[in-house]
Every structure is written in structure tokens, then in C-alpha cells.
Amino acid sequence: MDNEWINTLWQQYNLLGSAITLAVIVVVTKVGKWLLFKIPAMAGALEMNKAEDKVKWKKDKYPPMVKASQKMGLYCNVAKYLLVVPFCVTLESQPLWQILLDVFVILMFYDFFYYLSHRFWFHGNGAMRQIHAVHHQARTPTHLDALYVHPTETFIGLALYIGSIAVLAAVMGKFHVSTLVITGVIFYQLNQVNHTRIELDRFPYRTLTWITRKHHIHHENMHKGNYATITLLYDKLFGTLD
């Protein structure tokens, strides 16, 4: 009986699909950034963030915390692509509407639970508030501050995202590799973009500027709203849009 269960589990394990997912996310991210920063306006925003990040990096508090957070992120992603995604991904063809619907469901499911955790746990009265306060030392965040996070908080954020994929795959069935690529790119990039400084009020950059300004308001102190990270829909629904 145990051998049958192991064989069944092994048959569900799709390491190739997981490897393809990771590889495509990396390539899309790198190529996308290369193309984006060919645009003069975005190149200027990048240089502005680099200049401020360079000053911050010289402060004693930044290097150890950033490196600890990156190490935790690495551990979580290794576990994700070796232990979770292989059981949740498929290379079998799926219609475009299903892929787009699955992307929406995954991101909104994750963002709902992140909203709750961020609002009531990270900004509550317990120990997690003190852990989250490390990140909130950045009152006017730039790109580097997306990484200036206590490793415990990094673990929780990634665990919520990875757990969302695992739970939904168990309920909805395996996701196409394209679904996990799209959600992965959006998840990782939005969590960085909303910490950057972008001051471009003309089209088509207004949306990026709006995203960063809303999150910068959240960073002003520990009593501001705007708790969601993918979309501010839940803040609007629950009256915490600031």
C-alpha cells in the first residue's frame, strides 16, 4: 500500500514543468527589465533609485538585514520549485480563458490572505508588529527597501504565496506553466515596484506612479492603510484605502 502511494505521488511530480516555470520567469523578468529601462523615462527613474540605494547601503543596518532576507527568499524558492510547484504544474494545453482566470484567482486569493495578515498581524499589537517595524523604518522607500525586510516576514510573505498555489491546485487542479509564470512575474515585480520611487505623471506611467505613491503613504507610519500588495481592491472594500 505504501509503495502504491509513493508511486502515485511520484507520477504527480513534474520537475520538468517546475524547472520550465522557473526558467521562463527568470528570462521574462530579465528581458522585460532590459526593454523597460531602454525607455528614457524609466531609465531616469532607475538611476534615481540607484543613487538613493547607494547612500542607504552604506548604513550599517542595511547589508545584514538585506542579505538575511535574500537568504530566506532563496530557501523558500528552492522549496517552492522542488517541493510544491512540481505537484501543481502541468504542460498539458489549456484554453487561454482558463489560464487568465486561474491567474486572477491565484493573485486575488493570495492578496486576500496577505491583506488580513498585513492588517491584523503585521500591524497588530503582538511580536509580529515589531518584526514588521524593521521594514517600516523606510519612510520614503526606494528599490532597496523592498529587500530590507526581516527574514521572518520574508518567510511569511512567500509562504502565503506558495501556500495559495498549493491549496488552489489541490482544489482546482494543476495550473498550466503559463499561469504560474504570469502570477510569478506579477507577484515578484509588484512587490518590488511598489517600493520604488517613480515620479512620472504622464501617460503611460501614471499607473506605476499611483502604485508607488499609495504604498509610500503606507510607509509614512505604522497607522496608515493600503495593506494589500497586488491590488488595493480589498482596502477599498474594507475601508482601509488611504
Describe the structure.
The protein has one domain (16-237). The model has no long low-confidence stretch (mean pLDDT 94). The protein has helices at residues 2-12, 15-36, 40-57, 62-84, 96-122, 127-135, 151-172, 177-193, 206-218, 233-237, and strands at residues 89-90, 175-176. It has a two-stranded parallel ribbon with strand order 1-2. The chain is mainly alpha-helical and 242 residues long.
Uncertain spans: none
User: N- to C-terminal separation?
Assistant: 56 Å
Question: In DSSP terms, counting alpha (H) and pi (I) runs of 4 or more, how many helices?
Answer: 10
Count of the domains: 1
Tell me about the largest β-sheet.
2 strands, parallel
Strand percentage lies at under 5%
* Sheet with most strands: strand arrangement: 1-2
Q: Fraction of residues in helices?
A: 55-70%
The radius of gyration computed from the alpha-carbon positions, rounded to a whole number of angstroms, is: 19 Å
State the order of secondary-structure elements, H for helix, E for strand: HHHHEHHHEHHH
SS content category: mainly alpha
Oligomeric assembly: single chain
Number of strands: 2
**Average pLDDT, all residues:** 94
Shape descriptor: globular
